[in-house]
Amino acid sequence: MAKQNRIGFLIPGNTSNDKEDSYPAKQNTQPKQPDELEQILLKLYMPCPTAAESDDMLEGFEIFEAIAAYCETEREFLFTTLINLGFLTITIENTLYWLVKYN
Predict the structure, then answer these.
(1) Angle between helices 60-68 and 37-44 (to 10 degrees)
(2) What is the pLDDT of residue 32?
């Protein structure tokens, strides 16, 4: 059996052909796609049709941090959920902002 360093990767010089030996054991690989994400988003924000009508324009990380207080989720799932709920974006100087109204 090959020697592994403390985080589970093989030490160089391994001659093993077994791919399972080449990668660390996967921890919790369950996708974080909580069912309550839509409800949490709609308690915090409402979609806004135009920038002029929005209360704020938030970057993705700001929404992600706000949601993190209530549940764990993946960024991709969060953004897909925002789109499915009708949230719109605007790009200003190469930065994407989500148009929101506060509840």
Answers:
(1) 110
(2) 85
Mean pLDDT of the chain, nearest integer? 82
User: Of residues 1 and 63, which shows the higher confidence score?
Assistant: 63
Every domain of the chain and the residues it spans: 1-29, 31-102
Per-residue pLDDT band for 10 (boundaries 50, 70, 90) equals low
Q: Which amino acid is at 6?
A: R
Which CATH topology does 31-102 take? Arc Repressor Mutant, subunit A (1.10.10)
93, 59 Cβ separation under 8 angstroms: no
Q: What angle do helix axes 60-68 and 75-84 make, rounded to 10 degrees? A: 100
Q: Is residue 71 predicted with pLDDT exceeding 80?
A: yes
DSSP secondary structure string for all residues of 20-74: HHHSPPP--------TTHHHHHHHHEEE-SSTTT-SEEE-HHHHHHHHHTT----
CA nearest neighbour of 73 among 84, 59, 63: 63
Place of tokens 């009508």: 53
